[in-house]
Specification:
Elements: E1 6-23, E2 29-48, E3 54-60, H1 70-82, E4 88-94, H2 104-120, H3 126-136, H4 140-145, E5 148-153, E6 157-160, E7 170-174, H5 181-186, H6 197-206, E8 218-219, H7 222-228, H8 230-243, E9 248-249, E10 256-259, H9 263-272, E11 276-280, E12 287-289, E13 294-295
Parallel strand pairs: 1-8, 3-4
Antiparallel strand pairs: 1-2, 1-12, 2-4, 2-5, 5-6, 7-10, 7-11, 9-10, 12-13
């Protein structure tokens, strides 16, 4: 066993497209989405504990610190399915806000699975790793891959585009409110469903090494979210104005982004208006471990 500590950066994601094909018999929704991990990241430290049980300390954005946290859910499943000890000391610095569609909780869960793989030498059990990830949450498997991805199913089917990727900057901002994912899905109507053709077109375009065209991005949640939470619609309109290109919402909200050469100026103005806003860029990985290697796809640490 590696005695650690293992330190991980767990990156956020953006949905460049997000289309829903419909609701499945199992209650999940069938999605088609082009997803890109970005430079905004949480930081996690994991090491074996000298005491019994798991201690999770959270700094930064407030999130559940117990079994409701996806990190704890992933750890619990890994312990049950793979026989891994839960005697751990975990420190989580939250820089990705919850409830904004950026996937911070899912990324943290994927990162903890990578860390456990290094600590207990089960990283090569790919089937076990991905099974635990998929059971932990629909978005968790994509963070085991990272980079530019085509995501389908309920989120567990991930096709990764090979790097390198074109470099660009984007403006990212969010209002104070959170959007509960389950509530957003419950508000969808049949008119919001599609066959995912815009996702297919963008994916093919990006395979040519192109920077994503803001006009080619889409998110089927925007209609219902903007109606239910007008401050998000206001931010979307302001971001589009400042960026000079159409802004998009990521996930089910509430974060909004724009791929634009005006990213720095847009972020500065949004901050002046009271929003939390950052300049970000795409990354090729889902997590980065302190052992000095970037964790990509099914590579070990």
């Amino acid at each position: 066993m590696n005695n650690g500590p293992i330190r991980i950066k767990a990156y956020a994601k953006l949905n460049l497209t997000l289309e829903i094909r419909g609701q499945r018999p199992d209650g999940y929704h069938e999605i088609r989405s082009v997803v890109q991990t970005i430079s905004l990241a949480d930081e996690i430290s994991v090491q074996p504990s000298t005491t019994t049980g798991t201690r999770l300390r959270v700094q930064g954005y407030p999130v559940p610190g117990g079994d409701d946290n996806l990190v704890m859910a992933a750890l619990r499943l890994a312990s049950t399915r793979l026989g891994i000890s839960r005697d751990l000391e975990i420190r989580l610095t939250k820089r990705i806000p919850p409830g904004r569609g950026l996937g911070g909780g899912s990324s943290d869960a994927a990162a903890i699975l990578r860390a456990l793989g290094c600590l207990y030498d089960w990283e090569r059990d790919r089937d076990g790793l991905h099974a635990v990830a998929a059971e932990t949450g629909s978005d968790v498997p994509l963070f085991l891959r990272g980079g530019l991805m085509l995501v389908s199913g309920r989120g567990e089917k991930v096709e990764r585009s090979s790097p390198p990727y074109p470099d660009y900057r984007l403006a990212l901002a969010w209002p104070e409110l959170e959007v509960p994912t389950g509530l957003a899905y419950s508000l969808l109507e049949p008119a919001d469903y599609s066959e995912g053709l815009q996702t297919e077109r963008l994916w093919e375009y990006l395979q040519e090494g192109q920077i994503p065209d803001p006009a080619g991005l889409t998110n089927c949640f925007e209609r219902i979210v903007f109606l239910r939470w007008p401050p998000i619609a206001d931010l979307h309109a302001r971001m589009s104005e400042l960026a000079g290109v159409p802004a998009r919402m990521t996930g089910s909200g509430s974060a909004v982004f724009a791929i634009t050469p005006r990213a720095e100026d847009a972020v500065a103005q949004l901050r002046a208006e009271g929003y939390e806003a950052f300049v970000a860029h795409p990354v090729e990985i889902g997590q980065e471990l302190s052992c000095g290697r970037s964790v990509v796809g099914d590579n070990g640490c």
